[in-house]
Specification:
alpha+beta, 2 domains, two-stranded antiparallel sheet
């Protein structure tokens, strides 16, 4: 993750736009490594084939150098690496480092509101969505007890509950198991 130390203040509405404009020319130089930027977050995704991670490591080093050369400071505490590897027995490679700090290796992380796990299972994301929806159902029940018109209750459900349940559905739905799809009762 890149934390900008220059420019607009943290939380300013212009910050994501300015970051996008400022980092627009920061791109990946290798086909097997994708650089994804959203607001003020940057994610590198590397496909490592034949145990050759040199392209990935070069891109990490290149990104660190680019940030340094453009007055952006990487926050090493917020920078993580997650390895997805379905081979039977693997020895994870040593993590790359950012500014002489090794990157923490994690089993899952949140990316744009969706929890991605090493085994690419969607249960943590779906459980989180269901929990949020259940918490908001309380308010729907309170509105129903207050005898609000049905149309307003439907509007509340659509805006406050359904929007949560469908927020990242295009990401996880195809990979969800039948058990995961207990969400569909909503």
């Amino acid at each position: 993750m890149i934390d900008g130390q220059t420019g607009a203040p943290q939380g300013c509405g212009l910050s994501p736009l300015l970051f996008s404009l400022y980092t627009n020319h920061c791109t990946s130089s290798h086909d097997s490594v994708k650089l994804i930027k959203f607001a003020d977050d940057t994610t590198l995704i590397g496909l490592i084939s034949n145990k050759d991670e040199s392209a990935y490591r070069r891109e990490v080093d290149r990104l660190v150098s680019w940030c340094s050369g453009n007055n952006l400071e990487l926050n090493a505490q917020k920078t993580v690496e997650m390895i997805v590897d379905f081979r039977k027995s693997t020895v994870p490679p040593p993590p790359p480092s950012v500014m002489d700090s090794p990157i923490t290796s994690v089993e899952s992380f949140r990316f744009l509101g969706t929890t991605i796990t090493q085994d690419l299972k969607w249960e943590p994301t779906i459980s989180s969505l269901i929990k949020k929806a259940q918490q908001r159902m309380y308010f729907l029940r309170q509105l129903r007890k207050a005898k609000l018109p049905a149309q307003m209750l439907v509007q509340f459900y659509t805006a406050i509950i359904e929007s949560i349940l469908t927020s990242s559905i295009t990401v996880w739905f195809a990979g969800a198991t039948v058990r995961d799809l207990s969400l569909s009762k909503w």
